[in-house]
């Protein structure tokens, strides 16, 4: 099996342990993981996002510059001038930052700044904030007003993702608006911990409020 086929097979099978060994021995394998993020197959796209997070966790400390370059490439992909917009770049950045916040947390605001006014990236950005907001809330709170504004969006998915992002990041200022959302029965699909979950916006708002109650002032 050639390198491309082996890499894609490991991603699809979610055998991230073997994938880390492969990447550690041959960095060229990473370019094939990038390709997965463009796939119309949503399940495999998420496998690719999770793969980047696992690789960062396992190899980030020993090969920090390599992962910095990966993150720079994702940010470049988000830049219009890059001419190669990758819709899943925010999620991949979020997963890497979540797994190595001490090394790469400083890039979270860079991603948010690049994505916040671009509709194509907003869902991915909010998902990413919900991910790394748990470990680097101080990098998220700088954007609290902008994120809260998404709670007023007519798009149910944006509204739900924003609620989760605010709850996970401990942004108490969002509490009053979240309270008004607890009876919202519109369903959305969210990818959490390796699985797709179908939840009402009300359920997400309640979970966010519970987390805010536990957040220290």
Q: How would you sum up this structure in a few lines?
A:
The protein has 14 helices and two strands, in the order H-H-H-H-H-H-H-H-H-H-H-H-H-E-E-H. It has 217 residues and is mostly helical. It has two domains: 1-132, no CATH class; 152-217, no CATH class.
Structure description:
The protein has 14 helices and 2 strands. It has about 220 residues and is mainly alpha-helical. The protein has 2 domains: about 1-130, no CATH class; about 150-215, no CATH class. It has a two-stranded antiparallel sheet with strand order 1-2. It starts with a helix and ends with a helix. The model has no long low-confidence stretch (mean pLDDT about 95).
* Helix-and-strand structural type: mainly alpha
Integer average pLDDT: 95
- Walk across the major sheet and give the strand order: 1-2
Structural shape: globular
Count the DSSP helices: 14
How is the main sheet built?
2 strands, antiparallel
Notable characteristics:
single chain; 217 residues; mainly alpha; 2 domains; two-stranded antiparallel ribbon; 14 helices
Give the SSE layout.
Elements: H1 3-13, H2 16-25, H3 30-36, H4 42-59, H5 64-78, H6 89-99, H7 101-104, H8 108-115, H9 119-132, H10 137-140, H11 144-149, H12 156-168, H13 175-179, E1 187-192, E2 195-200, H14 201-214
Antiparallel strand pairs: 1-2
Helix pairs in contact: 1-2, 1-3, 2-4, 4-6, 5-6, 6-8, 6-9, 8-9, 9-12, 12-14
């Amino acid at each position: 099996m050639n390198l491309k086929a082996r890499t894609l097979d490991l991603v699809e099978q979610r055998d991230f342990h073997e994938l880390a060994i492969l990447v550690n021995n041959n960095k060229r394998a990473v370019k094939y993981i990038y390709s997965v993020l463009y796939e119309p197959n949503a399940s495999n796209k998420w496998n690719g996002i999770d793969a980047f997070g696992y690789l960062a966790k396992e190899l980030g400390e020993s090969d920090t510059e390599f992962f910095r370059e990966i993150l720079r490439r994702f940010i470049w992909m988000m830049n219009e001038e890059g001419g190669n917009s990758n819709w899943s770049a925010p999620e991949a950045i979020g997963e890497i930052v979540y797994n190595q916040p001490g090394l790469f947390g400083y890039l979270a605001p860079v991603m948010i700044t690049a994505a916040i006014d671009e509709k194509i990236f907003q869902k991915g950005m909010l998902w990413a904030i919900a991910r790394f907001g748990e470990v680097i809330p101080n990098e998220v709170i700088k954007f609290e007003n902008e994120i809260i504004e998404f709670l007023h969006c007519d798009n149910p998915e944006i509204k739900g993702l924003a609620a989760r992002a605010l709850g996970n990041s401990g942004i108490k200022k969002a509490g009053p608006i979240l309270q008004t959302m607890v009876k919202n029965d519109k369903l959305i699909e969210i990818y959490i911990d390796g699985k797709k979950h179908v939840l009402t916006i009300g359920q997400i708002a309640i979970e966010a409020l519970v987390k805010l109650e536990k957040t220290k002032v």
